[in-house]
Specification:
The complex is a heterodimer of chains A (305) and B (293).
Chain A lengths: L2 H50 L2 E2 L7 E2 L3 H8 L1 H34 L4 H13 L2 H12 L5 H8 L14 H26 L3 H9 L4 H12 L1 H15 L4 H6 L10 H11 L4 H30 L1
Antiparallel strand pairs in A: 1-2
Helix pairs in contact in A: 2-13, 3-7, 3-10, 4-7, 5-7, 10-13, 12-13
Chain B lengths: L8 H5 L1 H32 L4 H6 L12 H9 L2 H33 L4 H10 L9 H9 L13 H8 L2 H12 L3 H9 L4 H12 L1 H17 L2 H6 L8 H11 L4 H21 L1 H11 L4
Helix pairs in contact in B: 2-15, 4-15, 5-8, 5-9, 5-12, 6-9, 10-11, 14-15
The chains are: A mainly alpha (305), B mainly alpha (293).
Chain lengths: 305, 293
């Protein structure tokens, strides 16, 4: 027992309310800057986002309440449906590649007993590049005339592709860039999870005669279930907000690849300068993403409880 | 001795096991190099090629007549040093502001426990669930005209620094770390007459070095990689970050491709250097941020 635990009750009795008030003021003094930043740049914008979606605001004249006009205008805009369809396509494709590949890659890398540092550094390297640099780099690769990919296809006597220029392959091409640039992070997280698995499980399965595939299906994957679920939700929310790839590689005006985020950008900053309309779309995106966030919160809380 | 995984050590020692293992190892090594390293290598070496060799586009692995001309041109024409210094200034400033704001907030919530502290902490954590993207427009409008103060932070570094300080993840990690510092140490300091401020700077911070290192690295990398927000806030081309300036130049002018790629390499280089130096912290920090499996 330390002296302080004996002193504390005395201090309380002697100090009373004024001491507690002083302590609280001191505590809020330390907290003030943080409160201010959160209030200004997180809490207030959330409320503002909702009110703004019912207003007409172009930064020139005073904002006016217009009821549901922004939402009506949004649903009447053919680009709105296109953007939703494109975003769904991007998220779906990104899940097929960006979700399955890191799991398989992590299981594979976990078995390799050589060059472990090399694999980790190599897989994570693209994550360190500024995302706009990755997008610009792939723009050179996709170049239909003299890009790296068509040069390779040409060398292998395969038909060349228009990549981002063709509506058929544009979305897939964007997904490839994004997957390349991001999958290192999830791969390493799976790798960390794999390394904490108890080896007895594999030993027991092997004694029971489980082959390699059986061991992956019945031991590895069930053990990864929780982190797989978390990564799934994180990936859905991240890919639904995709911006840089369509912005840089195809432009925010191209209806073939316009996404919800590039449409928000287009409404607010590029074409329309209509902040109310952009806010209405933000609110819809927010509602959908909150559903995923709520599920995420629930499963992580259940797990830690 | 590594612990056993999917495949047992015994299976690897059989002749067949060894052959399969070595084949898989070789194939994986090459595929990983081709997929992840080669594009970055291509970028670094494309800047060494002459425009003629670049345009020829036979897949040359080693440039035929390597020359630093494109890098020199990028350095001068694209004004890399200017935008580089802008980015360093924003990243370091943002890092310091983030540390100052988040450390003192986490210290208050963890150690000084004010009335309603739990509610404040919950509200800060809740922002982790807020999609940054959905707040883009109102956050931008807030920066152009701060409530009550009516300041316009467009083109001011504070427009990048203050929003970055509202970081629920930092506060969560710091608070959890501070919570685990034994009470005895802090009480002993209090008896020796240390104020709250000196306890923080002389005792809590030195003990927190590992967690501060992780937060620092991630904050600097985050500021360096950011694109959309700096593009909106730094509208004056003179004040742009390297990423934003490169993107603007690539879209608006006729920069020769080798020169542009050299500029991109220079923009990526600092992060690669940081990565090589701090790889342990960065790869370790990934799991610090991850949920426990």
């Amino acid at each position: 027992m330390t002296a302080a635990t004996l002193v504390a009750p005395l201090r309380l009795r002697a100090g009373g309310f004024r001491r507690r008030l002083g302590d609280n003021l001191m505590a809020y003094g330390f907290l003030a800057a943080g409160l201010l930043c959160f209030a200004l740049f997180s809490w207030y914008p959330l409320v503002r986002s909702i009110t703004l979606s019912f207003q007409q605001d172009n930064l020139v004249t005073d904002p006016q309440w217009v009821g549901l006009d922004n939402y009506r205008a949004l649903f009447a805009d053919p680009l709105f449906l296109t953007a939703i369809r494109n975003t769904a396509e991007f998220t779906g494709l990104a899940l097929i590649f960006g979700y399955a590949v890191p799991i398989g890659l992590a299981i594979l890398l976990n078995e390799l007993r050589h060059f472990t540092t090399y694999f980790r550094l190599a897989v994570y390297l693209p994550v360190m590049l500024p995302p706009i640099v990755s997008a610009m780099l792939w723009q050179f690769f996709y170049d239909p005339g003299q890009g790296l990919f068509n040069t390779l296809l040409h060398g292998a006597h395969l038909p060349e592709s228009q990549w981002v220029q063709s509506p058929r392959t544009a979305m897939l091409s964007l997904v490839l860039v994004s997957t390349w640039a991001n999958l290192g992070g999830s791969t390493l997280m799976y790798l960390a999870a794999l390394q904490s698995l108890p080896p007895e499980l594999y030993e027991a399965a092997e004694l029971d005669g489980a082959g390699l595939w059986q061991r992956i299906r019945r031991v590895t994957l069930p053990q990864l279930r929780f982190i797989m679920l978390v990564m799934l939700l994180l990936q859905i929310t991240a890919t639904m907000q995709v911006f840089i790839e369509p912005f840089q590689l195809t432009g925010f005006t191209n209806p073939d690849t316009i996404t919800v985020m590039t449409l928000i950008y287009r409404y607010a900053f590029a074409v329309n300068q209509d902040f109310g309309l952009a806010a209405a779309l933000s609110v819809l995106l927010f509602v959908v993403l909150s559903a995923f966030a709520a599920i995420y919160l629930r499963i992580t809380r259940e797990r830690s409880a | 001795m590594a612990q056993r995984t999917l495949v047992s050590g015994i299976a690897l020692k059989t002749p067949v096991g060894r052959t399969v293992y070595l084949t898989v190892l070789a194939v994986t090594t090459i595929v990983v190099a081709a997929v992840f390293l080669y594009p970055v290598y291509w970028m670094a070496t494309a800047g060494l090629k002459t425009p003629a060799e670049f345009a020829a586009q036979s897949v040359t692995v080693v440039p035929e007549h390597p020359s630093l001309a494109a890098y020199r041109d990028a350095w001068d024409h694209l004004r890399i040093p200017h935008f580089f210094l802008n980015t360093v200034y924003y990243a370091l400033g943002g890092w310091l502001v983030q540390l100052a704001v988040d450390v003192s907030a986490a210290y208050s919530l963890s150690r000084l426990r004010p009335v309603l502290g739990k509610l404040v902490f919950a509200l800060m954590l809740a922002t982790l669930m807020l999609p940054v993207a959905a707040l883009l427009v109102p956050a931008y409008l807030t920066v152009t005209d701060l409530p009550i103060l009516h300041l316009n932070l467009l083109n001011s570094p504070w427009g990048l620094w203050l929003p970055a300080a509202a970081n629920g993840f930092n506060i969560y990690v710091l608070k959890r770390f501070f919570d685990n510092i034994p009470n005895d140490i802090l009480e002993a300091a209090a008896i020796d007459g240390a104020t709250r401020g000196t306890t923080l700077t002389r005792i809590v911070l030195p003990l927190s070095r590992p967690v501060l290192a992780v937060i620092s690295i991630f904050s600097i990398i985050g500021m360096w990689k950011d694109f959309l927000w700096p593009m909106l806030i730094m509208q004056d081309p003179e004040r742009q970050t390297l990423s934003v300036a490169l993107q603007r130049l690539s879209a608006s002018s006729q920069v020769p491709p080798t020169e542009m790629i050299a500029g991109m390499t220079l923009a990526a280089l600092p992060m690669i250097v940081i990565f090589v130096i701090f790889q342990r912290h960065i790869l370790g920090g990934l799991s610090a941020g991850a949920v426990k499996g």
